[in-house]
Design goal:
By secondary structure, the protein is of the alpha+beta class. It folds into three domains: 76 residues, Type Iii Antifreeze Protein Isoform Hplc 12 (Alpha-Beta Complex); 129 residues, no CATH class; 31 residues, no CATH class. Strands 5, 6, 7, 8, 9 and 10 form a six-stranded antiparallel beta sheet that branches.
């Protein structure tokens, strides 16, 4: 009987140990499942192109205006620009169609790209007009003027004398000040690298009011136009883009030429005395 009791006790101990191990394993499995359920589900993230600062309507998009920002996968519409799928270069040089707030995704519908229909209209401020004039490399600062720059428009013309008057006179005058350039030829970017063909441009396009557009159209018939580049520095002068009427902003030929101012035009005369010939300089207007 003693041996049987010992065997029964061993079997009971073994069964209890197995049950305990099974219970422990089951509890650990349940804890693992609970922890897995409680743990937050990690969401895959992408980066989308957003505005790094507020972009007003009509402004050109530049590299410093953009940045990449993480965005949840389930919250990325097809119109967003995804990093790795598209490049931010696609938006450089585009014009903002409507205001883009800081941190707001930059989408195709929010901008107008060069070559798109309505691009030039998007560049213009409300109520303004675009007008183009012919230029040369010399009259446009040898291609160093870019879209976004502001210039003064100078007219040089020759005044034909009427009957009884003297010779023709030449005069130059500043006819428009603080005019914004929106295109040089077909280039609308203000990046020197992008505007490498500015020197070959044959036209410059300005942003003006409707009345000023008529003024510019007439100026092209009067004489030669030159673009005078203005400084980017703010001089405190709140100067609007208006025709110059009262200011002394013209220069006559006699103001820059001492000969024309004094009227003393020189010429040379061959004087013959017998068999001798002498070349003599004569001052016209002298007594």
């Amino acid at each position: 009987m003693g041996l049987r009791r010992i065997i029964v006790l061993l079997i009971a101990v073994i069964a209890a140990g197995g049950t305990a191990m099974y219970a422990r394993s089951w509890i650990e499995g349940q804890q693992t499942n609970i922890a897995a359920v409680a743990a937050p589900v990690a969401q895959e993230k992408h980066e989308v192109l957003v505005a790094d600062l507020e972009l007003p309507a009509g402004s050109f998009v530049k590299p410093q205006h953009l940045r990449w920002q993480q965005w949840p996968t389930d919250d990325v519409p097809e119109t967003y620009v995804l990093k790795g799928v598209r490049s931010d270069d696609e938006m450089i040089g585009a014009v903002v169609r409507s205001r883009i707030a800081t941190g707001e995704p930059v989408t195709d519908g929010a901008v107008v790209k060069p070559g798109d229909r309505g691009f030039l209209a998007a560049v213009l401020n409300p109520g303004m007009r675009a007008v183009s004039v012919p230029i040369t490399a010399a009259s446009a600062n040898s291609g160093l003027i870019f879209p976004g720059d502001r210039i003064d428009l100078i007219l040089t013309q020759t005044l034909v004398p009427t009957e009884g008057e003297g010779s023709a006179r030449r005069v130059s005058e500043t006819v428009l000040r603080n005019v914004r350039i929106i295109a040089m030829g077909v280039e609308t970017a203000d990046d020197p690298a992008a505007g490498k063909n500015n020197e070959k441009a044959k036209t410059a396009t300005f942003e003006v009011t409707p009345g000023q557009a008529e003024t510019v159209a007439l100026l092209t018939e009067l004489g030669k136009l030159s673009l005078s580049l203005r400084s980017l520095a703010v001089d405190g002068e709140a100067e609007s883009t208006v025709p110059i009427a009262d200011a002394e902003s013209f220069t006559w030929d006699r103001d820059v030429s001492r000969v024309l101012r004094t009227g003393r035009l020189s010429s040379r005369l061959l004087v013959l005395r017998g068999s001798n010939a002498e070349d003599v300089q004569v001052q016209q207007g002298s007594k």
